[in-house]
Amino acid sequence: MTAPAREAALKALKSIRRSGKYAEDAVSAACSGLESRDRALAQRLIFGVVQNGAYLDWCLGELTALGRLEPQALDILRLGAYQLLFLDRVPKSAAVNEAVEQAKRACPRASGLANAVLRKLAALDERPEPPRGGRYISIKYSLSPWLAERMRCLLGDEGAEAFAKACNEVPPVTLHRNPLKPFDASCARGLEPHRWLDGAFEYRGELEGLEPLRSGHLLIADAAAELAVRALAPGPGERVWDVCAAPGGKSLLAAFKMDNRGYILSTDISDKKLGLLRRSAELYGASIIETDGADARAYEPDGLFDAVLCDVPCSGFGVLRKKPDIRCKTEGDIAGLPDIQLAILKNASRFVAPGGRLLYSTCTVLPEENSGVCGDFLRDNPGFVREGFTLPCADAPDGEITLWPHVHGTDGFYICRMMKL
What we know:
Number of helices: 17
Helix content: 40-55%
Low-confidence stretches: none
Largest sheet: 8 strands, mixed
Shape: globular
Number of strands: 14
Structural class: alpha/beta
Distance between the termini: 61 Å
Radius of gyration: 23 Å
Mean pLDDT: 94
Oligomer: single chain
């Protein structure tokens, strides 16, 4: 491993610890100016430590008392432990030596301890296993105890562990072909066709040098986002409202499905993100997209729509593999979300044309934010009924489905399609 990547990773962990910065933002700030190879490695280290924090602390805690350490010394130990336990490409001796050198510069009093602890960890033949029991999943996969218990209640022990394991893996990037631009074999060079999603590819390389991405021939969006748009089924010439649209992936995918014919209103409460959406629409040739800043709980667009997509703000527990800091959320952090989600759904439903489709989706797997919200809505709005749909990876005859990372290979995602009578 190169020193610039390790220094950037330590800087990012410090900013996360001190200011509560999101890992993705910390990567951008700390890795500015790094070469692409160093940046990719630093990002893997930062995300890896955040993603496996509880497990790393358990491993280190078996060898020393962590409470006596300076915070930065603990960051250095975590970085070293992550390399030793998860990155086979880094020689163990290099991981230990570089951690010791970093400790000498940042916190000299801890350098001897870092050397002793990491050498003990490097001498192990296999990754340490927490004791089986009530906290096993929480420790091994670094889920908060309450979330691990919720998954056990929803999925059972085996299912909860499979979910947690999938959330700690590094997924391939899903890239979608842009049908609004000429697309030839050169645009797909080095890409693997998606396992079950036509018109999409999987990619594990460096995105920075991928020319078809910069030119707007390929779009990054998880397969679950594509499935939500397929369930919405927007067609050429229709009027579509994407209620909480930013950063805009689903609006663009809808424009692709509509062959850029019709009208898409993309609203969001964040003006900054809408600016990014407008630039993306121009890049991808999606001229039917119009944006407007809005609080989706009260916004009143002009006219009715054939299809309305409510991809609402949520706890995000379906995207843990991409946003590791979400695992730090508490039950209190998400307690008020169902009320917000229901308010958005109720307001948006007023602008669905008779016979039109209303799609509710989230990137979480908690029932209170998913079937619970839709159930409350349908109970109070008899003018809407669930409508079945079929996806490439599963059928939803009852009009709703939860996608799971360990089952479907997508982000954790909930989709419910309703029709206005």
